[in-house]
């Protein structure tokens, strides 16, 4: 039997094709995946599932070949070994079906955040040719950049409450579709006039504003505590890789097809994601009919109860010092992170005198470093927790790195003369900043699992205030000092 026949053969169907010499039952020849069959035959140390066709295998009355008999004997041997080891043949499934569903949900959230930052940072590159075409000064650019956060402010608390009420699946799906449409409409709005562009940017902020509360709602139900840092680090690294992708591809699209192409192409990707999300995702394990019982038991036994929240004790939440520590930390963290997100390409272009393509490519390095460091920090944090270090201590260690590292490297920018050193300082700053994902961003679910979405909504609500101030402030200062 050829290798091609093994890969593409149909499921065994009728008894006459089974050799009378071996008299194997249907259960013993239950179809399985080829890679596990070969591994079992060659190594003999693992029960493997397999899929086999016997269209080419004749019964004894038709002179069955010795090669076919040996092949059937190999199949029988695997079946017998599976029985000896107590493995239920019904439970043997292909490897892609064994991939944990909770991590599939994490990957979908990762891809949503990838799109989120792709659509957010494309304006940072496109604003350069747009400013030249529409004759915008730095103050106007700052106004446009800040308008996104006006909408972002509006849906923080509402997004968290909505996710707790109707489920994170609907909220995150709505957010992706909404901001994708707003992204695609950006070129049309820009050509109609500045007020129309500001409105579309506000709408885009409304869509992206629900993403983080919805994601936290979903992961708090799907991910066990022991995997929390890694899962959150992976999802947040999607933001950084989104920045990498957006900053890397935007210059190419602008040079090739013009700046409107960036918004049309990036906006259309949201429809692809939404199709998969709608058919495969669920707000909680209890709503997923295809979730394996073993995984459901693991999740339920390891996650805090996340029944729908009817009333939120705002007074009690706001009376707790740890909540205010998170609010202050979140505000300070976003002050530095988002000024780099929105103004880094302009800094490279106007201060370091890189062209459009160079600005986009050099902006990639800090966010690529951030994506790597976020996952490294998540692995370190979960390892420390598993070795017995308290969760509080681990969060403090991670957040200390996330604050002190950027503080040191960003202050060095005022002392360096070389563009290469400036880019290196940016990369080191963002690389250490990513440890915050295993610090303050993981701490919401630690201190109040049931109300984690409400707490993070409060924190994110404070953060866009810093975004608006810094964008307007940076634009105004740039305009003042360059005049």
Explain what you see.
This is Major facilitator superfamily (MFS) profile domain-containing protein. GO terms for molecular function: phosphate transmembrane transporter activity. Belongs to the major facilitator superfamily. Sodium/anion cotransporter (TC 2.A.1.14) family. The protein is mainly alpha-helical and 483 residues long. It folds into two domains: 94 residues, no CATH class; 384 residues, MFS general substrate transporter like domains (Growth Hormone, Chain: A, Up-down Bundle), CATH 1.20.1250. Helices cover 74% and strands 0% of the residues. The chain is built from 20 helices and no strands. α11 runs antiparallel to α16 and α19 runs antiparallel to α20. The longest helix is centred in the N-terminal third of the chain and has 34 residues.
Q: What brief labels describe this structure?
A:
single chain; 483 residues; mainly alpha; Growth Hormone, Chain: A; 2 domains; 0% strand; disordered N terminus; disordered C terminus; transmembrane helix; transmembrane
């Amino acid at each position: 039997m050829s290798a091609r026949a093994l890969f593409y053969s149909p499921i065994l169907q009728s008894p006459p094709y089974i050799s009378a010499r071996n008299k194997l039952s249907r259960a013993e020849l239950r179809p399985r995946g080829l890679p596990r069959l070969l591994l079992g035959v060659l190594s003999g140390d693992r029960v493997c599932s397999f899929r086999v066709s016997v269209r080419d295998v004749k019964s004894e009355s038709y002179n069955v070949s010795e090669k076919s008999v040996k092949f059937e004997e190999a199949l029988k041997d695997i079946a017998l070994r599976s029985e000896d080891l107590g493995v239920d043949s019904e439970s043997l499934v292909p490897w892609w079906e064994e991939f944990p569903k909770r991590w599939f949900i994490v990957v979908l959230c990762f891809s949503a955040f990838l799109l989120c930052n792709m659509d957010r940072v494309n304006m940072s590159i496109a604003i350069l040719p747009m400013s030249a075409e529409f004759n915008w000064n730095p103050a106007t650019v700052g106004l446009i950049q800040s308008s996104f956060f006006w909408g972002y402010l509006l849906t923080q608390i509402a997004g968290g409450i909505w996710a707790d009420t109707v489920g994170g699946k609907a909220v995150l799906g709505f957010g992706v579709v909404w901001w994708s449409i707003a992204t695609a409409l950006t070129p049309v709005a820009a050509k109609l006039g500045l007020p129309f562009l500001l409105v579309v940017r506000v709408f885009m902020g409304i869509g992206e504003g629900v993403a983080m509360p919805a994601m936290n709602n979903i992961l708090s139900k799907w991910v066990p505590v022991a995997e929390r840092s890694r899962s959150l680090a992976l999802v947040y690294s999607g933001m950084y890789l989104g920045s990498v992708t957006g900053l890397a591809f935007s210059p190419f699209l602008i040079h090739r097809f013009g700046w409107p192409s960036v918004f049309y192409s990036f906006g259309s990707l949201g429809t692809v994601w939404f199709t998969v999300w709608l058919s495969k995702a669920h707000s909680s394990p209890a709503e997923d009919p295809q979730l394996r019982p073993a995984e459901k038991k693991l999740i339920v036994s390891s996650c805090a109860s996340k029944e729908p929240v009817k009333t939120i004790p705002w007074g009690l939440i706001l009376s707790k010092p740890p909540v205010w520590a998170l609010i202050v930390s979140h505000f300070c963290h976003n002050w530095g992170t988002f000024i780099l997100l929105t103004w880094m390409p302009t800094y490279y272009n106007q201060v370091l005198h890189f062209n459009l393509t160079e600005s986009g490519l050099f902006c990639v390095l800090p966010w690529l470093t951030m994506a790597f460091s976020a996952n490294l920090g998540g692995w370190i944090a979960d390892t420390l927790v598993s070795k017995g270090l308290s969760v509080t201590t681990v969060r403090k260690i991670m957040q200390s790195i996330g604050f002190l590292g950027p503080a040191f490297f960003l202050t060095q920018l005022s002392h360096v003369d070389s563009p290469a050193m400036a880019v290196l300082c940016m990369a080191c700053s963002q690389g250490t900043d990513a440890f915050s994902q295993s610090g303050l961003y993981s701490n919401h679910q630690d201190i109040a699992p049931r109300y984690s979405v409400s707490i993070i909504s409060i924190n994110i609500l404070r953060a866009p205030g810093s975004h608006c101030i810094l964008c307007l402030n940076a634009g105004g200062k740039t305009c003042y000092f360059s005049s």
